[in-house]
Design a protein that fits this description.
By secondary structure, this protein is mainly α. It is built from 13 helices and 3 strands.
Length: 311
């Protein structure tokens, strides 16, 4: 069986189980392309190792590719497509976990200023600014924000309908007065150059189409450079558009601490708002910034002293 046919069968099997399997399918397609038109049982360990190693430094993508190929070859082995697995028997040490970038309020202001005064061939200044405010105010995933249609943005009830996002979840996301006004102003302007079709995208390109993730990230990269927002911690990656989601969550947690709220009790609500399946996905935000750690430590100290006084 040819490698592309085996991969198509495997991807079809995974998706029939209800899995999206988009990222893994993309990796396997890249693997098939690098192997050429070979039978799946003719692929040698040296070729697989070259695909895993790539051309750059070791990153976590090595382990992502390795895990994806492990599942694929188990599938092939169980069905007799191959008689042996050409994967390495040992894995290199996994590099340090990537740390998201948390934008300061000053950096957010500079990014918005850069967005307001800059338009690209694909995305105008108003769309760029609206997208930044939407991500920062709601913590939506980039794909969720770009997938919003006109019918999903209910400005009267101040709620967003996020449909079929990660894990096939659909949820309602309440929005505040300020963001509602921003989206209302954008809606009024975008409707002058696009039909009022409920299934039309809310965020538009300069040509009236849906903004792609690649286009949004390219525009953000230019805005970030203009705003002179960059990392100084030696990390390999510069601040990303997706980091606005992390910044939104951390900002909310810091405000709760400042207001004296019971953060542990509020975490499940934040998890639901962000679209997390498990609360553990939200708890990771508790250790992201020194200010947040300071608030959490002070809260624990107060709790400890109160308990000690009752002992």
């Amino acid at each position: 069986m040819k490698i592309e046919q085996a991969i198509a069968t495997y991807v079809g099997y995974k998706q029939s189980l209800g899995m999206r399997f988009v990222t893994q399918a993309r990796m396997l397609k890249s693997f098939s392309k690098s192997m050429g038109s070979l039978d799946v049982d003719r692929i040698r360990p040296k070729s697989v190792r070259a695909f895993l190693d790539g051309n750059g430094p070791m990153t976590r993508s090595w382990h992502c590719k390795f895990g994806t190929l492990t599942g694929f070859y188990r599938f092939c082995l169980a069905r007799g497509y191959v008689s042996s697995v050409p994967l390495p028997t040992t894995e290199p040490r996994c590099p340090q976990t990537f740390t998201p970038y948390i934008y300061s309020e000053d950096e957010i202001r500079r990014l918005l200023q850069a967005a307001a005064g800059r338009a690209t061939r694909r995305i105008d200044a108003l769309t760029s600014r609206t997208l930044l405010l939407l991500l920062y105010a709601t913590g939506l995933r980039i794909g969720e924000a770009l997938s919003l249609n006109l019918a999903d943005v209910d400005l009267d009830d101040r709620v967003l309908h996020v449909r079929g996002s990660k894990f096939y979840k659909t949820r309602l996301v309440p929005i505040g007065t300020d963001l509602t006004q921003v989206l209302r102003e954008y809606a009024q302007r975008r409707c002058k150059r696009s039909p009022l079709d409920s299934d039309a995208p809310f965020l538009l390109t300069s040509r009236g189409g849906r903004v792609s993730r690649a286009g949004a990230e390219q525009a953000f990269s230019q805005m970030r450079s203009q705003a002179k927002v960059c990392r100084h911690d030696g990390a390999r990656y510069q601040p990303r558009l997706h980091d606005l989601r992390h910044t939104s969550a951390v900002t909310r947690l810091v405000r709760w601490y400042r207001d004296g709220a019971d953060v542990q009790r509020m975490l499940p609500q934040l998890a639901t708002y962000l679209g997390h399946v498990h609360i553990s996905g939200t708890q990771c935000y508790l250790s992201m910034t020194p200010e947040l750690m300071q608030h959490a430590s002070a809260r624990f100290e107060q709790f400890f002293l109160r308990e000690a006084s009752h002992a």
